[in-house]
Each structure stands twice: as C-alpha cells, then as structure tokens.
Amino acid sequence: MSQFKHLNSRHYTASRDAKITPDHIYWRRLGVPVLVKEFGTIDYIDFSPVEPYYFAVTCSVRVQIYNPITKLVVKNLSRFQESAYGGTFRNDGKLLVAGDEEGLVKLFDVSSKNILRLFKGHKGAVHRAAFVQDSLHISSFSDDKTVKVWDLSTEKVVNEFSGHTDYVRAGCTSPVSPHLLISGGYDHMVRMYDTRTANNQVLEVNHESPVESVIYLPSGGVFVTAGGTDIKVWDAMAGGKLLARIAQHHKTVTCLKLANNGRRLLSGSLDHNIKIYDVSNYEFVYNINYPNSVLSMGISADDETLVAGMVDGLVSIRRMESEKADKDQELDATDRGVRKGRLDHVDEVVPEQKKPSMAQVDKHLRVYEYSKALDYTLNAYFVKKNPHVTVALIQELIRRKGLARAFSGRSHKSLAQLLRFLNHHINDYRFTRVLIDAVNILLDVYEDSMPTFSKTVLDLFRQLARKLKQEENITYACLQVQGCTDLLISNASHTTRSRKMYKDDLKQSESAKKLDTINVY
Fold first, then answer.
1. Which of 162, 169, 249 is closest to 200 using CA atoms?
2. Given CB 3.0 to 4.6 Å as the disulfide criterion, which of 45, 87, 233, 466 pairs with 56?
3. Which among 176, 188, 179 has a CA at the least distance from the CA of 161?
C-alpha cells in the first residue's frame, strides 16, 4: 500500500498588504472609538483651530460643541427652526457660522451661544458656509445655485456669483488669500472666483460627478474635489490642470479633510471607510473602517482626535494613544508585581502554548472526514496566523472532489465562520484563484437554501458578492491599462524599427555612392 501523502501547506510569499509602514504605526495609535448617538444624520464636523480643539457636530436643528477629552457636549447652539448645516469655526475659535434649511446664515458667539449676525438673501437651503481668510467676511454656498460673500459688520452682500446650474453643496475659501474661493455643484462643475476681477470667475473644471466636497491644500495653489467614487487633484496655477485622480472608494465620497500639517489627505465615503493618502504622491497609505456610511469627519490640528459622523446619527470619536503612557503603564505594572512579591526578577516565564498540529488535519483526511478537517483549519490559530493552511486544505479537497461534501450540512454559525474567512482572504492575490473556485462550489451547495438563512449569513453572502464585484472591476481596469501599455510598447518598437531601417538605408546609400566614385576612377 502506498504511503499516505501529507497535506502540502507550503508558505506563500508575504502579501504586500501586510507590510508595516510608518503610517500604519502612526494611525494605528488611534484608540477604540467612543460612539455617541445624535438625533439625526451627521451633516458636518469641524474642529476649532485653537486648543483645547473643541469640535462642532452639526445635525438636525442644532450645532453641538464637544470636548474631545471628555467626549461630552459643552455648548449647544439650537437657534434653528429648520435643519442646520455646515457649522464652521473661525480661525480664532471664538465665532461659528452655520447655514440652515430656510436659506439663512447665522453667526454665533461660541462662549455666550448668542446669535451675533443673521444674513438673509438666499432663496434655498445653505449647506456650507465658511470664513474668508481675513476673518472679516464669510462665504455661503446655497441650493439656489448661488455663492455669496458677506461683510460681517454690515450683514450685506459684498459679492454674488451665479454660474452654477444646480445645487451648490460644497465650497471653501483660500487659506492664503482673502479674495479667492471655490464652489462645487451638483452640475459637476467646480468654479473658482476672485472678488477683485470684473467677471469674478477665474477658473472652471468639470469633476464629471456631483461635487460633494472641496478643499484647498495649504499652499493655496492646488485644490482637491470629491464626488462620485473619485477624488481629483487640480493645479489652480496651471489653469485647472488635473494632477491626479484617486479612485480608492467604491461608493460616493462625501467628505475631505487634511491632517498631519497638510501632509495627509483623508476621505470619507458611503462605503463605511475613511482612507488616508500621502499628499506628496497621492498614494493610499491607511484605511479605517466604520460600522455605517460616513457622511462627515473632522480631525484636530494635532491629529490627536479623529471624529466621524455617520448616516444613522452615530458620532465615532477616536483619540491617539500615547506610546510613552503605554510604556509607563507596563513598567508600573511590573514594579507593582515586584513589590507584591509576585515576581522574583525582571524576566517572566511564559508557558509554551500548544499549537494546533498539522497531523490532526492529515488524520481527518486519511479517513475521508473532509468536513472535520475543514472545521479544524477554520479555528482562530489557522485563520489569523496561518490562513495558507486553510487554503491548502481547500485546494486539496477540490482536487479530491470532496469540497462540496465538506461544505454540506453546516449550521448557520459554522457557515458564517466559513463566509468570514472567504470575505477576509478572497482579495489576497495569493489565495484568490483557489477561493473563487471554493465560492462557486459553496453557491452550488446552498443555492436552493438561501431563503432559509439567517440575516447574518445573508449579509455575509452579500458582502462576498460586493468583494467579487470589486475584484472584477479591478481586473477590467488592469486589463485596460495592460492594453494601453501594450499599444505604447508596440508603437515604440515600431518607431525604433523604422528608425533602424532608415539608418540602414542611409548607410547602404552612402556605400553605393562610394562604390560609384571608385568605379569612376
């Protein structure tokens, strides 16, 4: 009898996704989120530019100001009859401006909560308002398709711009000039205005999707727009030249913010993620996942507090954990242990934990217990530390035509465990080919039983479908890039070959002339 062949569990090359970068180390310090429930969707979040960096959360008919350390409301600005929008601090943190559903723009004194100015003139809801760089004017962006600049002292309109043909839901003012501002509309257009010029509008670019957010980079010469699933970077100094297009989200991007002294760009989206990019090259560097669609976000000037507002009214507050404090805590705990006599020396003997054995997998395979073998490799040790073993077993069961039997007859809990593994690892290029075959077999087994599944299992199946669709879109995009690259390479090689032929012809011609000269003599 031939010897039993053990399961081939070769180690795959490490995934690039697992690479630890300085950004991973830095942003991973954001602690466990504290969740606060508000009364409606979170429209806007803005941090005071001065310490202690209070942040304003605009939702429903009020603007609430939170202390980032205690996570408690310290001020409540509720002088609104209809929904409030876009509560934004002035650069000294003493004043706050907000629009509302009635088309009014209100200026508040943060300390006293009193309305200092009331700006009337818009005929539609004002979703965004911002202070101009000189702090003496404010700009407002409205659903009546206009943008207005107001004088704080007189409450009168200084400038009015009406180039948009749809709602204006995004806008910002220049960080370096009191005369420049940008508006983004649902007509897909982004317009830059200069209050010193005769026709006011100095620049216009097409984002190609309804614009949800606009932000200037600190230099003032580059601005970023978000709408649809795209983020686009434009050079204002070059007449609106497109510098970069970022397409990391698969649902609408709703908000943009800058962090790390302008060196990092953050984007929030309806796909439940906040993604972070390096402004020097616009590459993706880190991702933070949330339990629901992100509508708004804010980050303090020192990066210590990150706040995200979600569609269901939840506010997620994360604080940076101090590395020094963590080390001091560990040392204190060690000292206390020594003082109480629990430790005789600094070193501590840690008992060796028995790891799951590969022999057990082979034991199940030897007697054709495919379901038990799969269950064994779905435990936490293999899933978290050695997923390649689970994938190797799945590949072996496919070869034996026994995977359908291993999948059959599972409880909802066991099926959910299997689906979580597939969801987590199917995007890993090392495992994708095997796991896609496994998913096809899983669907064949449970296709008729879908209506009887629990909500948890159905949600996991839907998540798996979204991931596969995402992989399909990425594959098509890569094929398009490959086609373009092949075309360029083919054209370049053709040009090189033509030049070589031309040079050869030239050399032959020169040689013929020399021979003719010799014949004459």
1. 162
2. 87
3. 179
Q: What is the CA radius of gyration of the chain?
A: 31
Could you tell me which of 160, 219, 222, 232 has the C-alpha nearest to residue 189? 232
Strand partners, 400: none
- What is the rounded CA–CA span in Å between residue 251 and residue 301? 28
Q: Give the DSSP H/E element, type plus range, for residue 73.
A: strand 73-77
Measured distance CA(145)–CA(185) in Å, rounded = 8
Alpha helix ranges (H) inside 306-411: 323-339, 358-366, 370-377, 380-385, 387-399, 403-407
Supply the DSSP symbol for 30.
B
Are residues 164 and 138 in contact, defined by beta-carbon separation less than 8 angstroms? no
Tokens coding 105: 């723009």
**Which phi-psi region, left, alpha or beta, contains residue 240 (left: φ > 0; alpha: ψ -120 to 50)?**
left
Grouping H, G, I as helix, E, B as strand and the rest as coil, residue 107 is: strand
Residues sharing a CB contact under 8 Å with residue 230, sequence separation 6 or more, in sequence order: 207, 208, 209, 245, 246, 247, 253
Ranges of residues in the chain with a pLDDT under 50 are 1, 15, 17, 325-327, 329-331, 333-353, 518-521
The angle subtended at Cα 373 by Cα 370 and Cα 375, nearest 5°, is 110
Q: In this structure, what is the dihedral angle of CA atoms 67, 70, 72, 76, given to the nearest 10 degrees?
A: -20
* Residue of 7, 13, 12, 11 lying closest to 396 (CA atoms): 7
Q: Which two tokens stand for residue 88?
A: 């934004």
Tokens 């994360």 sit at which residue? 318
Over residues 29-43, the pLDDT tens digits come to 998 899 999 888 999
What is the number of helices (H) and of strands (E) in the chain? Answer: 10, 28
| Whole-angstrom distance, CA of residue 40 vs CA of residue 102 | 18
Which pTM does this prediction carry?
0.61
Q: How far apart (Å, rounded) are the C-alpha atoms in residues 246 and 283?
A: 8
Can you give the pLDDT at residue 357? 59
- Spatial contact of 223 and 265, defined as CB atoms under 8 Å apart: no
Estimate to the nearest angstrom the gap between the alpha carbon of 21 and the chain centroid: 17
Token pair, residue 388, equals 């390649």
The answer to whether residues 135 and 92 touch, using CB atoms and an 8 Å cutoff, is yes
